[in-house]
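Q: Protein A?
A:
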Amino acid sequence: MSELITAHFAPMMFIGLVLLLLSGLPVAFALAATGLFFGFLGISLGLFPETLFQALPLRLFGIMQNETLLAIPFFTLMGLILQRSGMAEELLETAGHLFGPLRGGLAIAVVAVGALLAASTGVVAAAVIAMGLISLPVMLRYGYHRPFAAGVIAASGTLAQIVPPSLVLIVIADQLGRSVGDLYRGALIPSLLLIALYLLLILLIALVRPTWLPAVPPEARHLRTEKGTHGYPSLLWLLAAAAGVALLTGRHYDALRLLLAGHSTPAPLDETIVAATTIGALFTFTVALIDRLLGGRFLSPLAQRIVWAMIPPIILIFLVLGTIFIGIATPTEGGAMGAVGALLIALLKRRLSWEILKTALEGTTKLSIFVLAILLGSTIFSFVFVAADGPHWVKQLFLQLPGEALGFLLVVNLLLFSLGMFLDFFEIAFIVVPLLVPVAEHFGLDLVWFGVMIAINLQTSFLTPPFGFALFYLRSVAPTHPYRDPVTGSLLPAVRTIEIYRGVFFFIPLQLFLVALVVIWPELITAQIQKPPSLNPDAITIPFDETAPSPWNE
């Protein structure tokens, strides 16, 4: 019996973990218990030395000293402060005024705000619940196609998985042993591409099925000038001027980058986009501030409302990303700056109270403890699993697949897609990702590209019925019984679960298309990563002056 256990120790250990997880035991405790049980079992069978666990405390203390993980509480606090201070409600209402006159305008507003919430809160649950509470009743009020309305909210909420500065990317970077800044750079273009795909789908449906996505009626638009107009001309002039400033910044950004950070190499595209957007947003905010000080002579109420609601979080987000991309700040320092910036924004808008600060700190503490507990448990498990040569077993398992690297990627994507319906991304990152790293390195895959692909895949799985997490979040806030709309007074039917499931199938193909595009065209990610200059040893020359006196003769 002992010989059988010794011969199949690694697979038995993995199966034991799966059984404990299925039993409902908390993931952190299941990981630690599996590691400790099989560790002592291996010692009793003579598979491990009795001193096996002596090095474990150093590994655990090493986790607590990991400065990269400090970015998690900082970015979480930043997002919770912005969320608790009413930013989501203000953004959604403002974006509704901006895009409401268009067919599909409310859906466009949801995608735009979903992207902003993703970049500020970084938490899927917060984004989906906020938009489900605020936007879904408005979309249902004005006759939106019910499944599509639910689908666009769920899909936009999951953008928090991939849009930098995402918590998912921080955790994956730590598990892959790669720079968080590199994963942020690599994920920026795919995340912008996915947002563009969402918007294109909305515009296409607005053309093909205009009755599905009606415009907001004129009587529901309240931001008007003194003459009764909506004030779009001044907003368009302001945005055109800001776009001109952004384009000018992008054109001359390399010179500015050399001045600020001393970089003489050409800037990657994503860094240029972040810098140009930041300067354009700062210009817009400055113009609006001057106009407000002058008594609102040039900008309409609509333009002022949009600037004051949407520009401050945009500036904060892109300042944080910009300092990380340029290299002025580490992700941890950028997160700290973002948390302080969120506190200042809430304070300037007079929405920072002791209760908001208290709940944000409590939420940050809970999430940080949750992540640390899972990480400690996974360290104990991986410590014993590595001692049992488990990574070699996993590697041999994947090497037996046909198709080599392509077959490995296909199976990994299917595996992560399936696990994402049942497990939280923290659990997948700490349990599964470390097992895949040796195989990815064996096939010569770029680990930054591999990590971003994993993040996109997990985002897709969060939408997939019947167990996608985003679906449960939306189901928890969607009306479960017929209700009377407080504005129109009409009786509206409940939102059925099958309608939420039907809605996400509009967006799942877009995300699967992005996963396939990243696999086929890895330059979408790798082109943005700054690689150190290669060094040719043969080209190194050391000057030697034969006439110089030797120090050994002194």
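Q: Protein B?
A:
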Amino acid sequence: MGIARNDAAFYEGLRAERGDDRVLAVSFYEKALASSLEPVKKAALDKLILFLTASDTVFPPAEKKRSAARILKLSPDEKILVDLARYTLEQYDAIAEPTLPAGAAGTGETAEAVGEIAPEASPWERAVAFGAALRRGTVYNTEDGIFMDFFFAETLGLPQMWLFGEWEALYGGDTAQKAAAKGRLAILRSDYGPAMNAFSITLDLDPSLFLRYPELLGDLGRAFQYSDRQREGAELFSQWAGFLETGAGLGKDIFSIDIKKQRYMLLYFGGRIERQRQRYSEAAALFSEALALAPDAGQADACIWYILSLALNEPVEAFISLLSEYGPVWKDGSYFSDILDRFSQRLCSTGQWKELYRTFTLIKDLADGSTAAQYAYILGRVRSLGLLREGPEAGELFRTAFEESGASFYYRGLSASFLGESVEPLPPRAETRPETGLEHWEELDFILNFFRFDCGDFAYPYAQRALPELSVPEIRVLAEAFAGAERWGESIRIISAGVNRNGYEVQRQDMELLYPRPFTKLIEENALAAELPREILFGLIRTESFFFPDIVSSAGAVGLAQLMPATALDMAGRIARQGGHDYQRDGEIDLKNPDVNVHLGAWYLNYLIRTVGSPVQALIAYNGGIGRVRRWRSARPELPEDLFLETIEFTETREYGRRVLAAATAYGYLYYGLSMEGVIADIYRGL
């Protein structure tokens, strides 16, 4: 497909930027403004805004001015770019004043010299208008609402960061408002110490500011929660909540605040602070009080989540009692899946099967399908072993797990193996047919051109922003493009956004995108050499790295099989001592090399299986370590391995085992002529 010169300029700009030639990149983005494609023009506009507002060390002032002059000659349609070019050229009087939106909290007045900018203008338009007013010296007092609303009543982003830099450069010293803005921006960067220092200035100068803006109050709560001033924060929030409840003030008029919402924020963040202090009963009381004031269903669910999370440390009866109270009133059952999984682990590890059944009766129609299937399968297994004598028969429980549409392949496969059923996640081939729905061709072409112009490494954020508007067939086109460029992890994430939509029937091509087979020859050969089923090694590598060969985890694990360097050195030494290839070079191993990484990963998994004597326990040890697996297993040696997995105390390791096994069932089904239930049954039988 051909592409017009101005359309191509955007991608040429990306390549220049990759080569660190920012001046050339900007010239290309300027040309792209003349593109006939709206997505290209919008992307070029965003790039030019970023360069013109970048620090002088990123894009020198002289180059900014030259670019601004060229932009004004182009006379683009985008008002923000014209205003930003004028700002760069110091033509401040040509930029309109911000106006006060109807009903806003502020009381400032605007200048009359250059007209007014519409209240519905974009954040960047308003940021530049505010900046120009500051530069002209005509800006109303920055304590007034129109200016403060921009920093305290909206979600923060790059426009606020840029404007704050202008504000600070022009007006030295700290005011209550400037310190509060500085604190919010620090929270945006997760810099809680500097945020707390800035907020302290506001607390000294004008604490009522926090009660005027819920977003600002929430950021103050986060600063207290994650700083060393938790006790002070808990006491202050309690005091303020009391003031609002009784109608007392804070020494200054706080006029039209939403008292109910602000009390909710004070109680909710007070609970979070007390939880951080490990004062659990005080935290639970605050969350319970906040729940009655929650402004919407999402915030109500957040309170319930914290209440139930805290109750996990209480006696089992107390948790079940709270679950019976709050389960019927929560709105999004999937929000609580982690809580219910942790409670299931607690009951399984202590053999409290009756309590597990009681919990299931409470949540089976309230939790998400995946959690309901999990509980149903565990109870079916317990019933089949005679460990529980009440409730439905094992077969009925397995049937519930098997037929639950939201169940993972893991629990469906296990249930099917007991029922003598077969898991068929795909429609029969005769019923599989192409879908219509390719309507957003302009947006699709925009993203696909990243790959045509060798810019695939820039494509994912643009694809991610487009996903909500695209149909599933369009999402599939994008996923195939990313897979074709060997960007497997991004492809998996993109197709997941489509198949997870309610009511969508997954097609085979979707499954193959969800469970791709890159490095096929390498992985299959190493699986054969290590006496591993191919589907297990594929499932492990997909779970570990999404097939990114150079990925490094926060813990330091490297590459496709996510090996720790010390583990890799140990395995490499064992291979060399047995006459194999010596991968060490000066005590180091190139773990980003797929050939090296997959060989060592397969060898390591084989070593774990031989050491612990079980594929399932080996997978658990791959994530959690051999020592822990032995300790966990010795605590419940009488349980079969599928129930043993449910007792693992680390949530990450417990879920890791399920995910690898679920992926293995998918790989066996898609590529190796195996049934899902057969794959998982064979693994639990020790292969």
